[in-house]
């Protein structure tokens, strides 16, 4: 899965000279949380709802309403936007975007293709992809195993699972020559698939039955 498969294409943007009040209204009206900032089709920054809220005067200010309105009318996105911008290429694997967001502690990334802004990818998009990868909407059995970390291990799992069908595989937590493997299994023979795995000397740690969920 690539970033382009999960991003929101053609995101709304603002320019550096966009008034902060206009940017706040755009976020509120459209339900966005961040806006890429373009100058002559070149990405120069990104502004979030937090950036804009932090730019608003404190309620403890002694300025009059007229003074506040005057100051806010002069405040532009260029004065509050974040730069340089952390970006990801549209043809990068989705996990690269997730890693960048985790490393830089940001909730979204502008997506570039040949240097041009083509989309935006957020933590919400990554979560949607995670749900898809884990097959959570397909129901069936979620089986967690401790599997030897060596060639052929997954092939043996597949053979033991038949005639049921593995629709999702995830691995993590390598330890002492083993890996935690989570299988999502559907199809025929579900009532005996755990017995088949155990009879094949696989270490079953957890079994959960789940129902299909509509999107």
From TrEMBL:
Keywords: CBS domain, Repeat
Keyword ATP-binding in annotation: no
Pfam family, one: TTHA0829-like_ACT
CBS domain sequence ranges: 7-63, 81-138
Protein name: Putative signal transduction protein with CBS domains
């Amino acid at each position: 899965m690539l970033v382009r498969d999960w991003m929101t294409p053609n995101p709304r943007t603002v320019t550096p000279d966009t008034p902060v009040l206009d940017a706040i209204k755009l976020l509120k009206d459209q339900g966005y949380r961040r806006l890429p900032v373009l100058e002559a089709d070149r990405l120069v920054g990104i502004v979030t709802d937090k950036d804009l809220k932090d730019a608003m005067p404190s309620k403890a200010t002694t300025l009059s309403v007229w003074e506040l309105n005057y100051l806010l009318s002069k405040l532009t996105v260029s004065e509050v936007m974040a730069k340089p911008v952390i970006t990801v290429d549209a043809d990068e694997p989705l996990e690269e975007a997730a890693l960048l967001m985790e490393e830089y502690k940001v909730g979204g990334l502008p997506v570039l293709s040949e240097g041009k802004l083509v989309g935006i990818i957020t933590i919400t998009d990554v979560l949607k992809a995670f749900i898809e990868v884990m097959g959570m909407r397909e129901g069936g059995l979620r089986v967690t195993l401790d599997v030897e970390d060596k060639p052929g291990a997954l092939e043996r799992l597949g053979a033991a699972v038949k005639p049921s069908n593995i629709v999702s595989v995830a691995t993590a937590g390598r330890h002492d020559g083993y890996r935690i493997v989570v299988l999502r299994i559907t199809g025929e023979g579900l009532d005996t698939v755990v017995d088949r795995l155990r009879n094949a000397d696989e270490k079953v740690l957890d079994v959960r039955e789940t129902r299909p969920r509509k999107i």
